[in-house]
Amino acid sequence: MLKYSKALGLVVFVFLFAMCNQKNKNEAEKETILKGSIDLAVDETVKQIVDDQVAVFEGTYYDAKITVKPKSEAEVINDLLNQKTKVAITTRDLTTEEKARFEKSKINPRVTPFAHDAIAFISNKSNNDTLIALKSVIDFLQGKPDPKIKGLVFDNPNSSTVRYMKDLAKINELPKTGVFSFKTNNEVIKFVSENEGMIGVIGINWIYQPTPDMTQTVDKINVLYVKGLKGNEYFSPTQNDLELGNYPLARDLFIINCQGYSGLGMGFASFIAGEIGQRIVLKSGLLPYKTPGRKLQIRKEIIKDKE
Fold it and tell me: What is the domain extent for residue 197?
């Protein structure tokens, strides 16, 4: 009887193993690095640049379909950790604790940086003062009033901008007064455009690439020059100041691929980190992680135009 049970168990194991292999084979046949479909969880603060990348990628590889799902940073990371999504765009690398959780699940995430981004402070157009010290904002977050700041406005409590500023201010919670939060960056821009004295905290991508319905609203706000915690100069979140390392609220963008096989996530990561993807970043107003090459045609002689 014992021998029969062992034999039956072995048969069941072999059957399940074969079924799993067949399933993986079928999955591989449906999806390659340039074919198939995936959901892409995206930090909402950088949705615009990701939409551009996906549009060009799908326009180049017709058998690829990427569905962009914008979420807060906390939701994106949780989806990755809980394996609800396999590929994501974030504004930070994984922490040591997060990497340990993946290792425990026998998952080796591939993290690829592809752009230099920034957090921007914005104010109402009627505010003639376009300068702000980062220390003033940090003090305000620590509960110290500042006459120049009527209030700080964030997109939502779980966003990457909130996490970034809380880390800078070394606080666990935002102040109960003087801090406002909505759901999206567009809502922050709209609120600031209608309320004097408010300072909005947003991803710069939403200023450089506003949605069509927000173009006129963006014209009603100022992007502030920021003085860092060291030095006395003020800098803006331009490609030049990002490249020189001057702007104090810079951050990098990453694509995190947890598929574990050569699927569409790998193909898309290679695309956005490659020549075409980096040119898309450059055109968006953000700074490419790698400077795209320039092809120059050198002539040995001058060819005169025909008269």
Answer: 117-251
Phi, psi dihedrals of residue 178, rounded to the nearest 5°: 85, 0
Same domain assignment for residues 217 and 270: no
Q: Any long-range contacts for 293-296 (C-beta under 8 Å, 24+ apart)?
A: none
Q: Which two three-digit tokens encode residue 150?
A: 């009527």
Q: Residue 85 pairs with which residues in a beta bridge?
A: none
Chain segment 134-179, per-residue pLDDT in tens: 999 999 999 998 888 999 999 999 999 999 999 999 999 999 899 9
pTM of the shown model: 0.84
- Same domain as 156, residue 82: no
> What is the per-residue DSSP string for 214-229?
GHHHHTTEEEPEEE-S
Residues 6+ apart with CB under 8 A from 96: none
Question: How many CB atoms neighbour CB 117 within 10 A?
Answer: 27
- Mean residue pLDDT across the chain: 88
**Separation between Cα atoms, residue 139 and residue 163, nearest integer Å:** 16
169: Cβ contacts below 8 Å, ≥ 6 apart: 138, 141, 142
What residue has token string 């450059």? Answer: 282
62 with 95, same domain? Answer: yes
Using CA atoms, how far residue 26 sits from 31, 63, 93, 177, in Å, is 9, 17, 32, 55
Give 65-81 as a 3 state SS string: EEEEEEECHHHHHHHHH
Q: Where are the beta strands (DSSP E) in 175-220?
A: 179-181, 198-203
For the chain, list the strands marked E by DSSP. Answer: 36-43, 64-71, 87-90, 110-124, 131-133, 151-154, 179-181, 198-203, 221-223, 225-227, 234-235, 250-257, 287-288
